[in-house]
Design a protein that fits this description.
Strand order of the largest sheet: 1-2-5-4-3
Number of helices: 4
Distance between the termini: 75 Å
Helix content: 25-40%
Structural class: alpha+beta
Largest sheet: 5 strands, antiparallel
Length: 179
């Protein structure tokens, strides 16, 4: 009989070891699947931002939707005669502000049109006497100021206006969400 009990113990121990192995392998599989799924979701989200689509944003960030983007809030517009260079998602703002989304509209316009626009929207006439903007200023995190000469920043509503001096190039940054 004692030989039978030893065999039973060995079978029970082997079965227990098998169950432990299955549980460990299942755990590794689930953890790997979750990590891989998270990485794929991150890639999908990153590629969506690169494609101009932001989570929660009302429209894709592209020139085809410029009219809709500018109509998000009354008062959003560009200087008279402005030529839109690009419309990009405000990814840095969105990363730093949960639920946030935004648009960076790069444009060019004539100097007088920009001056009139600033006076109408921001209420500021003396662009030259305003200090140079800093990359850490609120609202400019999605504009690369490294190639902008003497950048000027002003704000109105939920928008930030970044201008290059001498005047001619600008960026309208519209931010929303998460409020």
């Amino acid at each position: 009989m004692s030989g039978g009990r030893g065999l039973v113990r060995e079978v029970v121990a082997a079965a227990a070891a098998l169950v432990v192995c299955v549980v460990v392998l299942l755990g590794v599989y689930v953890a790997g699947h979750l990590l891989l799924g998270g990485a794929q979701a991150g890639r999908v989200e990153a590629s969506a931002s690169a494609a101009g689509v932001q989570v929660g944003a009302p429209y894709p960030a592209d020139t085809d939707h410029l009219g809709e983007i500018l109509s998000i809030e009354p008062g959003y517009s560009l200087p008279e005669g402005a030529r839109v260079v690009s419309v990009e998602p405000a990814v840095n703002f969105a990363e730093g502000f949960p639920g946030g989304w935004g648009y960076v509209i790069a444009f060019t316009a004539e100097e007088q049109a920009i001056r009139d626009y600033v006076t109408d929207r921001v209420g500021y006439k003396y662009i030259e006497s305003h200090p140079t903007a800093d990359p850490s200023d609120d609202g400019v995190e999605d504009v690369d100021l490294s190639d902008v000469t003497a950048p000027w920043v002003g704000g109105f509503d939920n928008a930030t206006l970044v201008l290059e001096r001498p005047l001619g190039r600008g960026w309208l940054v519209i931010r929303g969400g998460g409020r």
